[in-house]
Amino acid sequence: MAVGRTAPAMPASTAVTPATTTSQTGGSVADTMPAEPTSSNAVADFPTVVDPLVEALRNGRRDLVAQRLTIPPGDNAFENFRLALRLDPHNRAARKGIADIAAKYVEFAGKSLNEGDVAQFNDYLDRATGVLDPPSDYDDVLKRIADVRRQAAAPLIASAGTAAAAWNKVAASAAYRKALQLDPGNRTALDGLKFVATIGQPGFVFHDKLADASAGPPMVILPGAKVAMARHEITRGEFRRYWRAGGRAAFAKRSFSCRDRESIFRSSRDRDWQRPGIPQNDSHPVVCVTWLEAAAYARWLGKQTGRHYRLPSPGELTALERKVPRGPCKANLADAPYNHRYNSDDGSSCSDGFAATAPVDRFGLVDGISDIDGNVREWSAACGDGSPVPAGGSCRDYLVQGRGWLSRAGKEPATFSDTYADDVGLNTVGFRVVRDLGK
User: Fold this and answer.
1) If both were cysteines, with which of 156, 177, 331, 434 could 373 make a disulfide (CB 3.0 to 4.6 Å apart)?
2) Overall pTM surpassing 0.85 (yes/no)
3) Domains observed in the chain
């Protein structure tokens, strides 16, 4: 059918004039016959067929520009793009349109955060997430939203970490909670809150910073929460830092000897903490250190950290030694490897894997303290008679406590003690430090 075409005009000589006879009703025939059709059939007079998919995408883009993202109901970009997806579930333009809606909400969220409106920040990001259905179709957008939350929380998490390091539980908790408002489920913040709850409590592990911002030995708060003890014996690596910083100069003019397996007959001035006569590396406890050197290390550590460090008292060591687990090879004591190396039958028949010292933190914990039994005996802050070392004074000899790698299980108690002069080192004796909290 040709739209808009008119009927051809008839020639004038053959035109028919309508009759004017009178009808039965009395009117003329011309009065009652319908009028001739006109020739005005234009294109606009016919209905237009519209593709609903095309229309939905067009309306969605229009609403996106106008920032009618998800409201008002019935006239917004989201509903139009969703309609397009119902018509064509794999339509890329519609999916991009929804991703663009989410991106716009992320943009709004950033502005709200800059203005300090956390509630609006969260609302906009929730809206952004809400339009992404199914989520698996919008992995990139969801990752972007997660990054925005994580970045928003990062300064608060850093602030909380600084407060926690200073043992400021109130400030640290507040900062972690604010971070979780911006990034719910943030693992660092959740773990931080758990950590903050333990600050200052028995079992809490911490490191004081040295003057060069490096970490000091790991310390554990003991029951009663008044003192913290080094989790392990001071290692060769930790002692070396002190030695290079001042220990060598302080003791350069002193001549000490180191006994092998505590025998006075196997004492040598050629043996020292760096050449103890037993296999060691920097993860092993330092040995062949005199009481004077051990006490000097504690004073140096105190100056480095600004805290009060000292050697442990006999009572502090004994309280832990009484709790050590019983049984063969529960600690590094004399055993089969010891017997083999030293041609001895003093050791037990089990094997802890070491003939002499072992790396620290290898054996079980007592109140969070490792190797309180075995590995090395330890210097204490007491004279040989058990009395405290006089302030600014000295003792004739000093108390060593506990069992070491040469101790015979079942023949020496875990609370064993002995005494040695201040110029004697032994490759069975090391030390650990204690920090008085609140000082």
Assistant:
1) 331
2) no
3) 52-133 (no CATH), 219-436 (3.90.1580.10)
